[in-house]
Amino acid sequence: MAGGALFRAQCATCHGADGKGILSIDAPDLTLMWGRDGVNDEYVFNVVRDGIPGSIMPPHGFGETEIWMLVAFMASLVEFGGDADFMGDAGNGRRLFAENCAECHRAGEEAGGVLGPSLTGITLRRAPDALVQSIREPSGRIERGFRPVTVETGIGESVTGVLKNEDAFSLQLVTEDQSLRAFHRIGVRQITRLGESLMPVFSEADLDADELADLLAFLHGNQ
Amino acid sequence: MRFAVRLLFSLVPLLAITAFAQDGPTYEDILDGFNDPERWLTYSGDYSGRRHSPLTQINPENVGRLRPIWTFQTGTTTRGRGFETTPLVDDGALYVTGSNNYAWAIDARSGRAFWSYRRNLPDDLTYGASAPVNRGFGMLGNQLFMVTLDAHLLSMDRRTGDILWDVQLADYRIGYAATLAPLVIDNKVIVGISGGEYATRGFIDAYAPVTGERLWRFNTIPGPGEPGSETWPDDPEVLARGGGGTWMNGSYDPELNLIYWGVGNPNPDYFGDLRPGDNLYSNSIVALDADRGDLRWHYQFTPHDINDWDSNHMPVLVDTEWQGEPRKLVMMANRNGFFYVLDRTDGELLLGEPFTATTWAREIGPDGRPVILNDGSRGCLPDPWGSTNFMPPSYNPKLELFYVTARETCATYVPEEPDYTPGQASFGGVVFIEPDGAGALRALDIHTGELRWEFTYPSPTFGGVMTTASGLVFAGDHEGNFMAFDAATGENLWHYQTGSRIWGAAATTFMLDGRQHVLIPSGTTLTAFALPD
Fold first, then answer.
1. Is B433 within 8 Å of A54 when comparing Cβ atoms?
2. Best interface-test mutation with A: which of B123, B125, B127, B462 has the largest number of A CBs within 10 A?
3. Looking at domain A3-77, what is its CATH homologous superfamily?
4. CB atoms closer than 10 angstroms to residue A193
5. Residue B176 in contact with residue B58, Cβ under 8 Å?
6. Residue B39, pLDDT above cutoff 90
7. Rg of chain B (C-alpha set)
8. Tens digit of pLDDT for each residue in B361-406?
9. Phi, then psi, of B289 in degrees rounded to 5
């Protein structure tokens, strides 16, 4: 059985047919695995074979060839489009990152903000096209944990930030000024879930194609 | 030496007292249900499955002052699933099972363990239960009964955790497993089996408490030529791997001497082409004669299921007036999104109404079958975890309200013919689940199925429900909150953040030293609550 068929038969019920995981059962997004410390093909092979003891992730008695096919299939699920060339000028990319991105993002050793996701290793997990898309249209897809909200409190305060977590009684935010702020719902008058990302749109006029290539080259070299 | 002598003397009266209590509960005591407020002797507290305690010390006026008094740490995790047990309570001791077949006897006053037990599980354990969980002990006299992930039934001495006997229910290597809390009735221990995602055939068994001898077995998938086999292809192989797990506890009516038990999905879960027909008794409730295991009646909620909507829910038994007539009822809120009321003497369907926003079906036809509007071709069916699941519901007889944890999800099913490999799951397809589901605690009018009130959660929730006669509903959510509500209005009166999802578990309550205690398992902890002195 090919890796994809095996994945659909044995893995997809928990990890989703697209490998992106199912939050309500704590099944992790497998497309984010690669690029993390210590995660390589051999590590993934071992987890499939041995499971994670004490967890819902069972060991699997597949043959070695089948496990390697599964590993290859999972690697192919990563939105990274293959061994893309990053031909831009990383030095110029670094300058552009500092000017345009660092207020909200980190990348590797580079200092930066925390309102948006860390971009360390992002080129291992997302294809160049997808990254360009996110820069041109940041509201097209906003990942959980970065969705913008405005909270109006009972005493007339209005706070905008990204929603990190919530339950029936409380909300946890990183505010626009990048500090942690939590609210009890009992003291909140209104919660507005904003459709637009807090990230500005970068049009062709803001960053042209060459500049984007430079930026991606910088990000690729800054794992 | 002098010390030893003195110790011996001081122990004598103590031993004499405890020896008296050491006989443990009898069948009559379990039958007595909640009449002894210091006990909780079976999974739901009594045989009815209502999980409704008569205790009133904690009430809507004072529940806001409820405080944790101790926390027990199990040290065994079930990442991705829950601590699903219901502790049994007798004579100041709690009997608790945990993940990975750990178990403990715990002092209910201090939260300290008397003993702990851990089963050595085989290295080649299969995952017929999907997760290494356990829902609790059964108890009779000094014997505890526990099922295992490698599909055994154990009896242990409740004073030591020593194993008294150990019988195999089925072969775990094929994909069988067991997770439920055994149901102890008169001279019988009733258990079911997990493994419906594998090429297995479900059953319900009765064992003799003292010897472990098997007394009867009811197969949930009929054999060739047996009644019900006409709802399957004429193929012994298909029947032998037909699924129909029985992995959640049942309830019992001692007067009718009937056991009520839910049956799980047919196998393969999503690929129905291999098994044309209704596939009895999958996705059904069965009423079995307790002495012989014979089928008295059944009702199938989801004929020819292709969405993994097991009907493994706690059947809730209620005696009340129904349209002017006193009737014996059994109720279930089902994974398929419907709330059902049946006559439990003969299985007549009295009510079937949706309790979630499912587009699968909105009514039950005159033939008792769901009128399917969306077979999935229009997308957005309840996900495979269902509109609710095995987490216990509860019933308040004074208000005649049924409380259930509802899940609003949206999934697309893509079937694919499976390969069959022993010990490997055969789901038969994949499911795409929309990430942004929601949950709610809902109070349903049992006579109409109408929603009386709800409290919404930000995500689809697996926490169970308990109610008390003081007019409280205790529930848990996926974000880790343990909460109390006004049973009549749904007003939230109290909450406590346990730090981990409350998954599959529901609260228990009992009196100890004049104080009402409430217990909830969550993550790796069991926490006890009481009002301040």
1. no
2. B127
3. Cytochrome c-like domain (1.10.760.10)
4. 9
5. no
6. yes
7. 22
8. 999 999 999 999 999 888 899 999 999 999 999 999 999 999 999 9
9. -65, 125
Nearest neighbour of A23 by CB, restricted to B435, B456, B495: B435
Write out the two tokens for A133: 């898309």
- Residue B310 bears catalytic tag: yes
CB contact under 8 A, A24 and B478: yes
CA angle, residues B293, B299, B302, in degrees to nearest 5:
125
Please name the residue of chain A whose CA is at the shortest distance from the CA of residue B271. A9
What is the predicted pLDDT for the residue at B22? 62
Distance CA B151, CA B163 (A): 16
User: Cα separation of A82 and A178, whole Å?
Assistant: 34
Taking the CA of residue B431 and the nearest CA in chain A, the distance in Å comes to 6
* CB B497, CB B480: distance < 8 Å: yes
State whether A54 and B131 contact (CB < 8 Å): no
Question: For chain A, what is the HEC assignment?
Answer: CCHHHHHHHHCHHHHCCCCCCEHHHCECCHHHCCCCCCCCHHHHHHHHHHCCCCECCCCCCCCHHHHHHHHHHHHHHCECCCCCCCCCCHHHHHHHHHHHCCCCCCECCECCCCCCCCCCCHHHHECHHHHHHHHHCCCCCCCCCCEEEEEEECCCCEEEEEEEEECCCEEEEEECCCCEEEEEHHHEEEEEECCCCCCCCCCCCCCCHHHHHHHHHHHHCCC
Query: B383 - beta bridge partners?
Result: none
Rounded Cα distance between B132 and B130, Å, is 7
What is the residue-averaged pLDDT of chain B?
93
Of B46, B278, B310, B383, which one is the catalytic site residue?
B310
The ipTM estimated for the assembled molecules is 0.80
Residue B72 has pLDDT above 80, yes or no: yes
Backbone phi, psi, residue B503, to 5°: -130, 110
Q: How many CB pairs under 8 A join A and B?
A: 101
Residues of chain A neighbouring B492 (CB-CB closer than 8 A): 168
pLDDT at residue number B20: 43
For A147-193, the fitting CATH number among 2.30.30.100, 3.40.50.920, 3.40.630.30, 3.30.450.40 is 2.30.30.100
Lay out the sheet containing B349-354: strands in order across.
B316-322, B325-333, B338-343, B349-354
Nearest-neighbour CA in chain A from B278: distance (Å): 24
- pLDDT, residue A33, reads 80
Nearest to B81 among A23, A56, A168 (CB): A56
- CATH, range B30-62+81-530: 2.140.10.10
B20 residue type, one letter: F
User: pLDDT at residue B2 above 60?
Assistant: no
The superfamily (CATH) of domain A90-138+200-220 is Cytochrome c-like domain (1.10.760.10)
- Per the CB < 8 A criterion, the answer to whether B332 and B352 are in contact is no
Nearest to B48 by CA among B330, B338, B449, B402: B330
Same fold, A3-77 and A147-193: no
**Touching check for A18 and chain B: CB below 8 Å?**
yes
HEC letters along A161-223: EEEEEECCCEEEEEECCCCEEEEEHHHEEEEEECCCCCCCCCCCCCCCHHHHHHHHHHHHCCC
User: What is the block-wise mean pLDDT of chain A (223 residues), using blocks of 10 residues?
Assistant: 83 85 82 78 91 78 89 82 75 95 90 90 85 94 93 96 95 95 95 95 95 93 75
